[in-house]
Amino acid sequence: MVITNLDVSIQSLKDYTLRMIEKCQESVELSVEYMIEKDMKRTRKVIRQDDDIDILRDYIRDRSIELMALKQPLAKDLRYIYALGDISTELERIGDYAVNICTESLEIGEEEFIKELIDIPKMKDICVEMLNGLWDALKNDDEELAFKVAQRDKEIDDLYKQVRLDCLKVMYDEPENNINQGMRLVFVGRYLERIGDHITNICEKIIYAKNGEMVEIG
Length: 218
Fold this sequence. Notes:
With 218 residues, this protein is an all-alpha fold. Helix content is 85%, strand content 0%.
């Protein structure tokens, strides 16, 4: 098999995308972990590190456009480059949602949680596991694994419904004390639910890059 300059360029673009997944995984994990620990200093650090994700997105986007314009790739190569550019945008949104979680955490501050946090950490764990699976699927161009990863999004959706119900109940029982934090916890659940959606979108793009099939999972 002859390795061309285009092949090397695509692999480099892929490597940057894998690195972006790693940074998103870290941001999602730490955003919830530090919220639970009420570690405001490290929460702010996670927010600052989002710049690294944005820089990677800009590089991948610009480089993918450059490759399409200058190398004029055909068929599979064109599809793959296009998919990587789209994936970087989805990952950038995941980074933004991790920042949103941190922002809600800072607003809650040192307040005692109005309810035990059970389902939010579970949602975070599944998101992190999905991102790890996503990394493997992209690394190995494994469309079957990508499909399996995306199917886990339903678990996140179900947990989000429970988070919302639990928070609404607590807010209803003592509205004068719990509404503000209750809504912030609902927002955190919503951000994790949206992270699951973006991971699913990326899985669909991995399948598209591999075989040209546009699928909608979930």
